[in-house]
Amino acid sequence: MTRRYSLLKSWWLTFCVLVARVFFWSFYRIKVVGKEHIPEEGGVLIASNHVSFFDPVLIPSIIMSLRDPEIIYGPAKAELYRIPVLRQLLFSLGIYPIQRSGRDVKAMKRTMELLKSNKVMLFPEGSRSMNGQLQKGNRFVGKMVYESKPVVIPTAVKGTEKALPRGKYFPRLFTRLEVIFGPPLDLTPYYTCPTAKEAAPLITERIMEAIGQLLQKEK
């Protein structure tokens, strides 16, 4: 039963990745830079800016392999889990709920545990940018990195804010989308801080700085 479940899960993930790729590569001009920076094994944090509902679908579809897909875990706002069908879909893809109002300790602990040996995608801004500009990062991202010490890959996504703008439900097709994966960040100096409280804002600031630099590339 376990092996059968594992096969079904693998087939399901392959199907989802295939559908996403067919959609994006058929209807958009896609450019991917720096995918080679992402380690194949170990704890990895994909830290990206967030400007569209397309972001959490496009980025994993680029990273995940069709032959042997590995789940890219990540949190999504808890409101989405009120819809039964959507709730089951999200859970099947490794997406778990997080309360955006206040501090969700349970979701943070789960993220830190996952970051020790899995790939996790987070949007440090916490939600989609209202104006398309990079916003301030959440210090709790820095805390989770300090506690788990994953490989951190700064990531910049461009063009999705035009393909599916905030407040719109129908995508604009045949626009250019670009995803840039930066080299792993050296956060070793921050790990020498005696407490997470001291290190967290510094780590978050460094991550956001790296994302901002990627967004400025080739402008």
Total discrete domains: 1
Helix content: 40-55%
CATH architecture: 3-Layer(aba) Sandwich
Low-confidence stretches: none
Order of helices and strands: HEEHEHEHEHEHEHH
Distance between the termini: 52 Å
- Full CATH superfamily name: Glycerol-3-phosphate (1)-acyltransferase
Question: Summed up, what is this model?
Answer:
The protein is α/β, with parallel strands linked by helices and 219 residues long. It has helices at 2-27, 55-63, 84-92, 105-114, 139-148, 160-163, 188-191, 196-216, and strands spanning 29-33, 44-48, 72-77, 95-98, 119-122, 151-158, 176-181.
Question: What are its keywords?
Answer:
alpha/beta; single chain; 219 residues; Glycerol-3-phosphate (1)-acyltransferase
Describe this structure in words.
42% of the residues lie in helices and 17% in strands. The model has no long low-confidence stretch (mean pLDDT 94). It has a single domain, classed as 3-Layer(aba) Sandwich (Glycerol-3-phosphate (1)-acyltransferase). The protein has a seven-stranded mixed β-sheet, with helices on both faces. The termini are far apart. α3 (84-92) links the parallel β3 (72-77) and β4 (95-98). With 219 residues, it is an alpha/beta fold. α1 (2-27) crosses α2, α4 crosses α5 (139-148) and α5 (139-148) packs across α8.
